[in-house]
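Lab notebook: predicted structure, single chain.

Context: the supervisor wants predicted structures on file for every construct in the current expression panel, including those that have not yet been purified. This is the next one on the list. No modifications to the sequence; it matches the entry in the shared construct table.
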Amino acid sequence: MSSSDHSGVGRKRGGDHSGGEAIRKYYHDMHVIQDMLLPMHKVADALEFLHREMEVYPIWLCPHRLFKLPVKTMVYPEPGFELDPKQGDTSFAQMFADIGVYYAPGPVLRGEEFDGAEAVHRLEEWLIQNHGFQPQYSVSELSEDNFWRMFDRELYHHCRRKYKAIGTFMDVYYKSKKGKKTEKEVLEAEAAIAETEYAVAEKEN
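Prediction complete. Output recorded below exactly as produced.
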């Protein structure tokens, strides 16, 4: 292969990269790929919200039982649910539902303006306010603060310190965060957090 052939390959790879970014941007801004886990008694409100904000059909619905455990994990039932049980709840588990929407939203199909990132922001805030959780394979716009408003961090961070994961394994927020951060920005943010967590771990020991 001649040097000109090599340069051609380089240009092709560069083109593929920019094409990949264009596809990524399209799906980020013009397409909806979302799942949400929330209490079953909130499903009607969630469907109204999704129709108003995204208008994506068809909709995936799947029941999910979330158990009350001796320790509080990152995803957990509503506190005190057993004192006021709703349909499907028991004394040891709360009935949740997984709602999934995966398609182009109504405004995009009609050729209207649609801000995908802002729509996801509003969805995430709605979930936080309604004890809902966003699986992190979905497109996520969560800031780190809002991520830990949605998920409980106490047990997770305790385990990271106890088993010396800080600085060895990336924090779950940065593993799953997509948004529009570059890999370099993610690594820099994780390094800064690792320094803080090391200081906390040293103080506790």
